[in-house]
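Many introductory courses stop at the sequence. We go one step further.
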Amino acid sequence: MSADHFSTWEEAVCWLKQQADQNQLVIDCYYDDPLIQAVERYYRSEEWKAVRFELNNSSGAALDVGAGRGIASYALAREGFAVTALEPDSSNLVGSAAIRALATESGLPIHVVEEFSERLPFGDGEFDLVFARAVLHHTQDLKAACREFFRVLKPGGQFIAIREHVITRQKDLPHFLERHPLQKLYGGENAFLLRQYAAAIKQAGFAPLRIISPWDSPINYAPHNLQSLQRDLSRRLSFNIPGINRMIQTFLGLPGVWFLIKKMLELIDNRPGRLYSFVAVKS
């Protein structure tokens, strides 16, 4: 199947949902129906619990950039934010029409705007939070998008960009795209070097910037939680030999051991497309 097999993302997702062997991927991407149940599952997920910690009980006006079906818009509204969901795709399944239907069904304060992140149709300093889930790596102009995010934030406002694909070298990009399970359906996937993300955010004016590594939070390693992540890692390290598997799993669960293992993994992990997240402030 070629990347241009489908003419729209909605067509690609419709096809994906019909494939019995892709059911877990559909669930992990929150493409399953009914939508209200999918967004509620995201709101209860370990990923969102970790995001909630980053929000630090803040409130006000939130801009959810690249909102898709509205899973983060829903979660932000549940946290008490007045949400503006920015989504250029108008489709009923994966776009702005889905978000509008979700807002009506849930009764939550979610306003939908169809536009791209590089040209935000808002005045300066309108938002207390700009939130972007798996958005930056899709931008046509990363630096311009970050400048726009900075512009529409109030002083002291928070910028949170999560689950962004990172490559170590530019030549790793084709390998990442070849292995991405959704790239072959419609295209549009991408990844940047870690320093490119950091530079774009800092040059926009954000300070300080905190970078969350792939192994540091369920924000990045979801749908795993910590226990399932350690189980999967021990299975791989033990070649799934039962006795060795149990021993490694017990070792990983010891106090302090996971912290050291995690730091080691951060140094040696060069997987193309691994996920990083970024938390910054408009000072």
